[in-house]
Write a structure and sequence with these properties.
218 residues, alpha/beta, Rossmann fold, seven-stranded mixed beta sheet, 9 helices, binds S-adenosylmethionine
């Protein structure tokens, strides 16, 4: 896709079929591609301030790259619920769980806007899930599965200020094959901000990445 058509698509809503195609094609090389972003994952997981025995939703969990740092904090009694719509990404997440022997990981292969799970989690992670953050139904469904006051952390790409155009070239390249809509890329977290208490957001990576957090309504 050329830059022009990418930008022309910037206001379309997220497209499920396109996303499934995107991640079906990427699944096998996804973990290697995400290696440079690992420090962000560690920071996002730390910001969840998980306690042993808690339950966390990993929304758009992909191949389960966040499971190990989550599990480390949750301990053997903790519970991870991974939600992922792409079968190829979910298959790799399932392999990871089997290989690691984690017993308390529930994997739900479903769009975040439709996933159903009994119980209320203590925290939710949205790590590089722009298409999900841009779907109000996905946010509302996730919040409905959190206890009041649960901690929520979201990270991902965003447009840097215009003067940081080299950063925006990077954001353009990375977003072009990891999201299906550039809608809201200036403030990907804004629909989450409307739904959370104590919402905070800051920019990192020279403005090209955001780190947001807050609490589900009490
Ligand atoms: C960039 S990957 C991030 C994966 C993982 N969170 C990580 O940190 O490595 C985005 C993931 O969100 C998934 N996804 C996109 N839209 C979704 C939706 N509506 N419901 C569930 N998963 C979705 C994609 O299939 C993909 O695996």
């Amino acid at each position: 896709m050329g830059t022009r058509s990418r930008l022309a698509a910037s206001h379309a809503p997220p497209d499920r079929d396109k996303s499934l195609q995107q991640y079906r094609a990427r699944a096998a090389r996804y973990d290697a591609e995400l290696l440079p972003f690992e420090p962000l994952r560690q920071e996002a997981v730390a910001r969840l301030e998980l306690r042993p025995g808690e339950t966390v939703l990993d929304v758009g969990c992909g191949t389960g790259l966040s499971f190990a740092p989550l599990q480390e904090r949750l301990g053997p009694q903790g519970h991870i619920v991974g939600i992922e719509q792409c079968p190829e990404m979910m298959a790799l997440a399932r392999d990871r769980v089997h290989a690691s022997g984690w017993r308390r990981v529930t994997l739900l292969q479903a769009p975040a806007e439709e996933a159903r799970w009994r119980g209320r989690a203590d925290a939710a992670l949205f790590h590089f899930t722009h298409d999900i953050l841009r779907q109000p139904a996905a946010l509302d469904n996730t919040l409905a599965h959190l206890r009041p006051g649960a901690r929520v952390v979201a990270t991902g790409l965003q447009w840097a200020p215009p003067w940081a155009w080299p950063v925006n070239l990077f954001v353009l390249g990375a977003a072009s094959y990891s999201v299906t809509s550039f809608d809201g890329l200036a403030q990907p977290w804004c629909a989450l901000a409307e739904r959370l208490e104590g919402f905070e957001v800051h920019a990192t990576w020279m403005g090209g990445v955001f780190m947001a957090s807050g609490f589900s309504p009490r």
